[in-house]
Amino acid sequence: MDKQLFDAGWEFTDQLNPFFAQFSQWQPVTLPHDASIARPRSQQAPTGGAGGFAWSGVLTYRKKFQAPENWKDQSVLLEFEGVYMNAKVLVNGNVAAFHPYGYTSFLADLKPYLLYGAENEVSVLVNNSAQPNSRWYTGTGIYRHVWLRVGGDRHIPPWGVFVTTPVASPDSATVAVATEIANDGSEAVRVMLRSTVLDAKGAPVAQAETPVELAAQATANASQVLTFGQARLWTLDDPYLYALHSEVLASGEVVDEEKTSFGIRSIAVDSKNGFRLNGAPMKLKGGCVHHDNGLLGAASYDRAEERKVELMKASGFNALRTAHNPPAPALLEACDRLGMLVIDETFDCWRMGKNPNDYHLYFEDWWQRDTAAMVRRDRNHPSIILWSIGNEVPERTGVSDGYAWCRKQADYVRSLDPTRGVTSALPALFEAMFAEADPAQVTLENPFDLMNPIPTDPEKDRWGKVTAPFLAALEVGGYNYLYNRYEFDSRQFPGRVICGTETFPHHAFATWEATRRLPSVIGDFVWTAIDYLGESGIGKVSIDAPAGLFMMQDPWPYHLANCGDIDICGFKRPQSYYRDILWGIRQAPYMAVLDPQHYGKKISFSPWGWEPVSDRWDFPGWEDKPTRVDVYSDSAEVELRINGVSIGRKPAGAACQNKASFDVTFTPGMVEAVAYTGGIETGRTHLKTPSAPVALHLTPDRRALQARFGDLAYITVEVIDQAGAVVQHAGPEVTFTVSGAGDLLAVGTADPYSEELYVGNQRKAFEGRLMAVVRANGQPGEIRLSAAADGLAGAEIRLAAR
């Protein structure tokens, strides 16, 4: 089917009733669109801290379009990648589709309601008013792309091509293709299916033709096998992609065609050899990723999705888990192109909900359709290695027929795609945790260790017993925050494959050591790789005050989770540098300095958090005051020097969990860490005290954009001194101006307490930095962005849209 982007020319209003909507004030919008991010957050918002205190409500979108006369004999569909939530699609006032789940793609058949040769109107009613319905920020609206699909009576329906590679080696490749062909006509017909494998340059490397008999008003399935030699395998370092060109021919004429991107690769997993890609064993260095795009809210721009993957690759990740729902197609396409493995997940809850208005209201009626929507849409992506059917569902203990529901879903996934395994993420048994622990020993830093102790007698292991039937239906057992069970369960369940589907940042060393050492544990997915809106304060640090365990306090105006290795702007946080050293991708030591104002005080945070440290030697007014410098290093020992004077050497490396701490006096100038192994220097790093701030500095992630609406450039804004060093204590308000072939889409910081909006043209710097996002408007030309702040020299950059 012909597929055209249908994002432009929409309007929206805050009204759900179609009768009253026609009298409302309409605002023009080009998709993707998240209405929540543009509105002030409020302590009274029913989304609460879990939803980032964001606005939620009802919206109606509408768009007028022409239906040409030649569409009369065509199939006409709209494909919605994602609408949050309870989407009802009307065509000329007729209900064409209803879709409650906010994360799966769906189709609306327009053909029965179109007026040919005339103007038509499509409306989309969005209802996100029933709160709370999620445990994180969701956004509101048509937040992903919409596509118009038009095809003849005989066509390949959306997601109707399934490509697998049962033989994947450099010498020989076998490509198996299953293709659906629909006949909407009133007569049976005979067509020819021609499938051609094209290399990355578009040259054909294999072809097959198969005749297909199509009954009237029916769909037929055709199977083909194509083989060729000298194949280029899809790997993480060389994510080479082929394309399958599918053509339906009638009387020798092409009546429909489809192109499907795929990679030639093999995957395998077992408890003895772990995970293998193309036969090579590897550990999954993973991170969980929510669907939002930080400063953009839920709006899913292709470049924003691609940038997530780029940031993770640059920080050593080789895998991501989509938490806790199917992602935007653009994210998976970026994983295919850039080389990132994926666990693709369906639901956060089944029949037993976690919030009054969440997906449990729809699960029994919709789980099969939503599961099919994910698997059928995504199964051609070579990046996907596992399907996940749930996250921390209460049914894991067998309640509410949980064991049967687990097997039913897993079997259904395998019926749609038998080439990948199925997993589900299981946490501790919270209902048993407090009963088995000594409350006096439970702290913020160790709750899951102490409240879920590993029994010395396997017969008393309640977790193992009640979850065993659940996990028996799965190829991989997903363990959330259960790294202390890895070795125990590897002995108790010798055939079980384990994956750390969520792990604590602050337990990174112990978790990775267990993952690295045990063959049955295939990977470690930290919560989270990239920070996100909502679940406010699970990584919050409290000074001389209780932090509260997992949002047990109202954190307003705190609206970020603050648990990501990478913050919502894309800047690496100290735990990300620690992980660099843990994974062996950074040799130089990293210095993490405690702000002197916190020294000697009680610092509290949950295991999702991290010490309040930074790569900063810049604390005006705290000269000659004590503080602490943590040095992250995998070398045997590190030496700390302040202004050339040695403070001493301390052991580091694995014996000290790659960290050495020094109590020092803050003295402006330079602090330097030097790492040694066997007495030989292995690396060094330093921090300098900047001088007074004098200017702003702009650094774009790229200077050339495509001249199409929605391409993005991310511009790092820094407050610098005369030498160009970032002045991290500076927090001026910065004003932005954009002109030319683009506009300012968002501006923000990683300040979790800020009440400022992420839209607009002003924002206060945080830790000396901001992030601005510029969007191309679809026209070729120059885009100029300027930034100004009182008392500082301004800055300007010019980008090209072409």
Would you give an account of this structure?
By secondary structure, this protein is mainly beta. It folds into 5 domains: 150 residues, Jelly Rolls; 102 residues, Sandwich (Immunoglobulin-like), CATH 2.60.40; 274 residues, TIM Barrel, CATH 3.20.20.80; 104 residues, Immunoglobulins (Immunoglobulin-like, Sandwich); 107 residues, Immunoglobulin-like. 13% of the residues lie in helices and 38% in strands. It contains 11 helices and 48 strands. The strands form 11 sheets. An 8-stranded parallel beta barrel has the order 22-23-24-25-26-27-28-29, surrounded by 4 helices. Strand 38 and strand 39 form a beta hairpin. Helix 2 packs across helix 3 and helix 4 packs parallel to helix 5. The longest helix has 16 residues. It is globular, with a radius of gyration of 27 Å. The chain starts with a strand and ends with a strand. About 1% of the residues have low confidence.
Question: Spans with pLDDT under 50 lasting ≥5 residues?
Answer: 431-437
What is the CATH superfamily label of the largest domain?
Glycosidases
CATH class of the largest domain: Alpha Beta
| Number of E strands | 48
* Residue-averaged pLDDT: 94
Q: Span between N and C termini?
A: 28 Å
Shape: globular
How many distinct domains? 5
Would you tell me which CATH topology of the largest domain applies?
Answer: TIM Barrel
In the CATH hierarchy, what is the architecture of the largest domain at level 2? Answer: Alpha-Beta Barrel
The multimeric state of the shown protein is single chain
Rg from C-alpha positions? 27 Å
